[in-house]
Amino acid sequence: MLENTATTKLAPETKLSAQQQELKKRVLAFCEQHLIQQQTGLFVIQGAAGTGKSVVLSALMATLQRGRNDATSPFYQTNNYLLVNHPEMLKTYKQIAADQPYLRKKDFMKPTPFINQMAKQATTADIVLVDEAHLLLTKSDRYNRFNQENQLAEICKHSRVVILVFDTHQVLKMKSYWDQAKLAALIEAQPHEIFHLTQQFRVHANRATQQWLTALGTQGQLLPRPTDADFDLRIFADANFMYQQLCQRDHEYGLSRLVATADFPYKLDGNTYYVTAPGFKLPWDKNMDPNVTWAERPETLDEVGSIYTIQGFDLNYVAVILGPSVTYDAATQRLKLLPNNYQDHEAFKRRSDLTTQQSTQVKQQIILNSINVLLQRGRYGLYLYATDPQLRAKLLSL
C-alpha cells in the first residue's frame, strides 16, 4: 500500500516539513504569549487541500496535551480542545486519542456541543484548535442545536486562544458560507496572526498537473491536460470501465475509492440510493461504522463516496464522477454549473441575508468547491468521468 491510513497520517509522531515545523513553533509561541498576558488571540492557518493543515493541528494538540501534565511546561494544567465539524474526521481524532496516553477522547468535539457545554458551565477553555473551520456554521441551525448566529464567534467567546485552519475553496453549504468582509472583521477585531501553508503533500504530481487540478477545481477552467510520469491522470468515456480500472488500482496499491458530486438522489430514510450512468450503478456510501472512517473500510470500494465522507482524507487513487450539475460552456471554455440539478438540498438551505443573485452565485461556488474537494483526494492518480456529454467530450479532447 502506498499511503497509510488517515489515523497513521495524523498521528502525533508524523514527521513535519520545515514549513510545518516553523508554523508549529509560531503557533506555540503565540499561545504561550497570549496565555501569559491573559489576552485573547486568534491564529489563522490557511492553505489549499493537501497542504497538511490537519497534520499540523494534530501535532500541536499532542504538544499542548503533553504539556498539560508537565509542571515545567507553559501549558501546564491548561484546558484545551480540538473541534471539527466533520464526523469522519472526528472519528479519526478519537482513534488517535485512544492510542495516546496523554490524549483524551473527550478533548475532541464537534463545535456545537463545545459551545453549548461552555455556555452551560459558564467557563472558558484555554486553547481551542479548530480543524476544517470552513465547515463552521454562519447561521443558526436548530437541527444541530446551534441557536446562535456564528460558530466561530461563539468559539472565540468561550476560548482564550483559538487556532483554526481555513480554506475558502472548501465551503460546502449555504449555512457555512462566509462573507469575506465579515470574516475579515471578526479576525481583525482581536490580536491575530495568519500563516499560509503552500507546500503540496497529498498530490504527488508535477507543477503543471497541480495547476491543472487547481484551475479546474477553483476556477472551472479547462487547461490542456499535462503529461506527468508521476501522476496517473486519466479521462474516461465510460463510468463502468473507469470503476474497473479503479478496482485494479485498489488491488495493486490499496486505498482507492470512487466518489461523485452530489447530483444523484439521496435521503436519510434507511433506503439504498444509487449513483448511475450508462452501464453503471453503485450505491451511495452507507457510512454505518461509528468508529472506522469510510475510506478505510475495504467494503466501501463497492460504494460511491461523497464530499462528506472523503473531505480531509488522502487516497492513493481517486475516481470522480461529475454529475448533471456540472456541464460545459463552450463560449467561455469553462465549467457551467447548474444548481437546479444539485441533489444536496440541505447544502442550499435558504439564507435571508443573501439576495437571489447572491444566492445563485453562492450555490455555484458551493458546487465548484465540492468539485475541488473531490479532485484533490488522490496522491498518485485521478480518474475522471462526466455524465454531461458535452463536458465529457471536451475533457476527452484536452
UniProtKB/TrEMBL annotation:
SUPFAM superfamilies: P-loop containing nucleoside triphosphate hydrolases. It comes from the Bacteria. Residues 39-241 form the AAA+ ATPase domain. Signal peptide: none annotated. Gene3D superfamilies: P-loop containing nucleotide triphosphate hydrolases. Pfam families: SLFN-g3_helicase. This is DUF2075 domain-containing protein. It comes from Loigolactobacillus zhaoyuanensis.
